[in-house]
Write a structure and sequence with these properties.
Spore Coat Polysaccharide Biosynthesis Protein SpsA, Chain A; seven-stranded mixed sheet; 12 strands; 38% helix; binds guanosine-5'-triphosphate; binds 2-acetamido-2-deoxy-beta-D-glucopyranose; binds magnesium ion
Length: 396
């Protein structure tokens, strides 16, 4: 408690702060509603103008959305402290016991920036059993329920149709050519698992939405709305923060295999899709993909016959082992084939770092962040990022 002699001072300060808000709020509100958002923001690129239509249910959100590039009509939902509505969702984290320290750093940020208000549960997955120390020290830093799952061996081993001699030769060759993770066997099991199995782990069955988190990633901005409910209310199926171009050496035959799948499964491909996002002018792969270390997405989409049949087709082709197909391009090609632009959302407002790249909100949206906006990949390295091209695609 405050020492008695300071109480009058505290009351005066509180009154001053309150008065400040009462006087300023009409001005702030009208500015939010009427200002031309481009007028005072030097960072807005005229080629990528700010949103024309933004529907919000909360005054605060209008100011928040004002400086974002995203062109779409969205509904931002109220904080849980006011409405009790919650999505059927969980964070899902593939990790190892040795990641404990990095993971705790990440989860403390995620809780501070978001989940202390929402208490969404966590599912931790591992190909080896989690230690008691790991479980206890994770439970100590999060506000949601935790479940710890073991990955079944069939999902983290060679399928019988893979020639392991050929796989070993491919690793040796790719290591000699210094291809990133080229010689790494466990990395390949990880990529295959994240491509085709995490959403089928029994612990995920009860959920409709997932948010993928990795040990070591950072969250830089206060997130004052529920991103899961945002997805649900706006009929989104897949959300990302960073998009970049893949190293071609890791996926030499992924595009051709995908094209073959599409030819053989025409009936499964909706007319309105996002293939334009991944296709270059001569009809090849432009290497663009959503970086899958961050994803907020629909589990029903990944569990759909469409997506699973695509994964099975890729798995049979062997590229997870004979090449080094990453789960990011695989998810992204699945999204591009089966979803349309309105179903995919750039969480421009979520300040996110996965070494070495940032997604960082610009302008007013940066006020509750500690990330530098000029570091955001789509500004800092336009040629490597695909995000502004995504934004420019026509809505269906
Ligand atoms: N249980 C388990 N998790 C793994 C294994 N390898 C990677 N992971 C997890 O899989 C995810 C991706 O692995 P990373 O090593 O971060 O791969 P990356 O993001 O492509 O590469 P970095 O640039 O090193 O981060 C992370 O959540 C890891 O914790 C593994 O062998 N076992
Ligand atoms: C497996 O791959 C090796 C090396 O590429 C090859 O020599 C061998 O014939 C293959 N085995 C089968 C059964 O295809
Ligand atoms: C192999 O990949 C894993 C991530 O899956 C990484 O932690 C490990 O350091 C890599 N090993 C080598 C030798 O690069
Ligand atoms: Mg990583």
């Amino acid at each position: 408690m405050l020492n008695v002699k300071w109480r009058p001072v505290a009351i005066i300060v509180a009154l001053l702060v309150l008065g400040h808000f009462l006087l300023l709020s009409p001005y702030l509100d009208s500015r939010r509603l009427s200002a031309d958002p481009t007028a005072d923001d030097p960072l807005i690129d005229i080629k990528h103008p700010p949103p024309v239509t933004v529907t919000v249910t909360r005054g605060e959100a209008a100011a928040f959305t004002e400086t974002l590039v995203v062109k779409e009509t969205v509904v931002v939902h109220e904080d849980l402290s006011e409405s009790q509505e919650k999505a059927n969702a969980a964070f899902v984290i593939l990790t190892r016991n040795k990641d404990l320290k990095d993971l705790r750093e990440t989860l403390i940020q995620l809780e501070d920036r978001l989940n202390r208000r929402y208490h969404y549960p966590y599912v931790f997955l591992n190909n080896e059993p989690f230690s008691d120390e790991f479980k206890a020290k994770i439970r100590n830093v999060v506000s949601g329920e935790c479940e710890f799952g073991l990955i079944p061996t069939e999902h983290w081993s060679y399928p019988d149709f893979i020639n392991q001699t050929r796989a070993a030769e491919a690793r040796k060759d790719m290591a000699e050519r210094k291809i990133i993770y080229g010689g790494n066997e466990s990395y390949r099991h990880m990529c295959r698992y994240e491509s085709g199995f995490f959403f089928r782990h029994p612990l995920m069955d009860k959920y409709k939405w997932y948010w993928r988190v990795e040990p070591g990633v950072k969250f830089a901005c206060d997130i004052d709305y529920d991103p899961f409910l945002f997805m649900e209310k706006n009929d989104k199926k897949y959300g990302f923060t960073i998009s970049i171009k893949e190293y071609i050496e890791t996926i030499p035959s992924l595009w051709e295999t995908t094209m073959n799948y599409m030819k053989e499964n025409e009936a499964k491909i909706p007319e309105k899709n996002l293939m334009e996002f991944v296709t270059n002018k001569d009809g090849g792969y432009n290497l663009c993909h959503f970086w899958s270390n961050f994803e907020i997405g629909s589990l029903d989409f990944l569990r759909s016959d469409q997506y699973v049949s695509y994964f099975d087709y890729l798995d049979r082709a062997g590229g997870f082992f004979y090449e080094r197909w990453g789960d990011a391009p695989v998810h992204s090609l699945g999204v591009a084939m089966f979803l349309n632009k309105n179903e995919v959302h750039w969480f421009e407002d979520i300040g996110y770092f996965h070494g070495p790249l940032w997604n960082c909100p610009k302008g007013k949206a940066n006020d509750k962040c500690w990330c530098p906006e000029e570091e955001s990949i789509e500004i800092k390295n336009k040629g490597w990022s695909c995000t502004l091209d995504f934004v420019d695609l026509p809505n269906p």
